[in-house]
Request: fold
Amino acid sequence: MDAKKTMGSDLKLTVRGLVHSYESKDRYINHLGCWMPKIETVQHIISLLKDVLFPGFRLEGATADNVEYRVGAAVDQIFHSLSDQIDRALKHPEVGQPCESLPGAPSMSAQQITHEFLSRLPEIRALLETDVEAAFLGDPACRSRAEVIFCYPGFEAITIHRLSHELYRLQVPFIPRMFSELAHRRTGIDIHPGARIGHHFFIDHGTGVVIGETCEIGDHCKIYQGVTLGALSFPTDAEGNLVRNQKRHPTLEDHVVIYANATVLGGNTVLGRKAVIGSSVWITSSVDPESSVVMEKPRLRIKSKETSLPVSWDYQI
Reply:
């Protein structure tokens, strides 16, 4: 048999095998006829949202004379695109509403949710202004507030988080997590949209930061790269299934600072007001206000090239 015919026959068998696997009642990875939110569209919505939050930085050609028109056009585009994506999410079978074979006009509920979300943008912008200020005042390497908005990955992550958090509060399926995962890919900072974060929040450097769903962070808090605010354990019910909708992640009161690579775990763990957590510590219990927690002074051991005897000294943190 000709090699091309053989290859074509093999490909047909592959296709039939895939289609047959879709028919299994045990499979939940396929929902034929459903239209999931589109990642490319969600990315564009995020870009448009940043346009209207920072028009002087992102909307080229925007002036005091035309800014209302330019922002109005962008908001109108966001409304139509986001309501369509929310409608798709609401109609997913795991959410509980019926699928449709083709997407149609967004439902009234999707439009109402989108309208409510957009009405919160001025409040989000006001919060972000405090985050810009916290970064500028908290980093001596920062030359201007514009540098924070243009360049800082921590500010990029918190911008998208504050948007995703409002969608999360409005109980939108899928899309808040899509927002947060897109930010994670871009910045290396993983903030669950459910996390509650106060004003004047600053993530310095940022790579490797993880903030869990039920984490609560007060005002004027600052964390560095590699910090994990996570769960200590995952409780299960009598049948061994994970118990959801419980507080699993720590609480930070106001003015807490956490240095690089520290790990703070547990829903009952509270870091009191003005607590300072040093680098690389592991915390699973609460810390009193105005306390400092640091690792014990480590001891480095180095072998010198000039002698076979080890040379060591204390290294002060």
